[in-house]
Amino acid sequence: MHRFASESMQNIKPSELDIIWAKAAELTAQGKDIVNFGIGRPDFDTPAPIKEKAVQAMNKGEVHYTLPRGMEELRQAISDELKQRHDVSYDPASEIMVTVGCVEGITCLLMTVLDPGDEVLVPSPMYPFYWGWAEFLGGRTVEAPLSRENGYQITEKALEKAITPKTKVMIINTPCNPTGVCQEMGGLKAAAKVAQRHDLLVISDEIYGRLTYDGVEHISLTSLPGMKERTVLTTSFSKAFAMDGWRVGYLAGPAELVKDMDNAHLRASTCASVISQYGAIEALRLGEELVAPMRERLEKRRDLIFDMVDQAPGLSAVKPRGAFYLWLEYGDVGMSDMDLSLYLLEKAQVAGISGSAFGASVKRGMRLSYATDRKTIEKGMKRLIAAFQNL
Ligand SMILES: Cc1ncc(COP(=O)(O)O)c(C=O)c1O
Which helix (H) or strand (E) holds 346? Predict the structure, then answer.
């Protein structure tokens, strides 16, 4: 670390995710045929109409700052989308902010609400970058481990155990990265009850909300009674529209809080890229027409990877019903899950992310991203299963 690096920055250690990614890249650069199940982004190209709209905008000279909260046309489209998908009304002028992906939205929100010492409660296994935000701001991330026995559904008991007088915010992510689990109504109600009982602000990260399988309908936490006023819904175009490099997303929440966030958002980004905002307008206009074909392909890949795991001796998984991750479970292999990931990378040339990247309390498990083609999934899983058998 540079001598000028702040103390809070020095306390943020690199995630195990970064270590596996770097190692996989190094081996690939050496010419090794690595099957990479580590990457958390779609392998699809951004749909052509989205790209065309962005190019047209650029060619028309739409190259300047937009309003900090985002283009009015986009905010209106977001408001319509939320009403139509979740039957929740958001005022585009005061309750919606276009952000530079989900990440910038969550960063600005936490900058706005956290004081030193405050705690952020997150059910785990959890998206690795939830850890570090609070710490950077002088707060603390506290995990509420969920159990395999009830399919990683949220329970009041699991959340209550992790609540302290300092808990101020709770982050709920469904469909979940890394487990692919969609919270059912019971899990959502449990989260809502605990949030209301302890007067918590809820960040509902619904970035995979459009990617659900087996006919599962994504339920937004904001649609539960009494939750809209204490919830900020965050999402982006990164996953369902294969626009992760465009860096555009949005959040919707109470008007006063969105107003309070203006300060942080202005300093962090001024506004999201105008070109990406044009693309996002087109993404919302065509919606399902663009998402459905990608979702169908992902669902078939989910079937393939899940069936291979299901039939493999010693391996198991809760069937993922959303996102594009499978949470691989295995018995005692005589080494830590990080060592196991590195071992599989060297021996089987397969990159999967070790469970402990998804929470300090997670001791065993591996996230496999199936956002890759079927042939690669088959090849990688055959290697992985053989390597587990030889352990
Ligand atoms: C649960 C979750 N939230 C947020 C993000 C960040 O997404 P964005 O590209 O919108 O910043 C990711 C990306 O992997 C994610 O999995």
Answer: helix 337-347
Q: What's the one-letter identity of residue 245?
A: G
Predicted local distance difference test score (pLDDT) of residue 17:
86
Measure the CA–CA gap between 367 and 283, rounded to whole angstroms.
29
Domain 48-286 class in CATH: alpha beta
Match 């408001």 to its residue by tokens: 79
- Ligand 1 and 340: CB distance under 6 A: no
Question: What pLDDT is attached to residue 18?
Answer: 87
Cβ count within 10 A of residue 8: 14
For the stretch 19-29, pLDDT in tens is 899 999 999 99
d(CA 182, CA 300): 18
Q: Is the CB of 176 under 6 A from ligand 1?
A: no
* 315-316 and 325-330 strand pairing: antiparallel
CATH number for the region 7-45+290-389 comes to 3.90.1150.10
Strand 249-252 with 140-145, pairing: unpaired
Is 111:232 a contact under the CB 8 Å cutoff? no
Q: Find how far residue 243's CA is from the centre of its chain.
A: 14
Mean pLDDT of 83-90: 97
Q: Where are the domains of the chain?
A: 7-45+290-389, 48-286
Is the beta carbon of 171 within 6 A of some atom in ligand 1? no
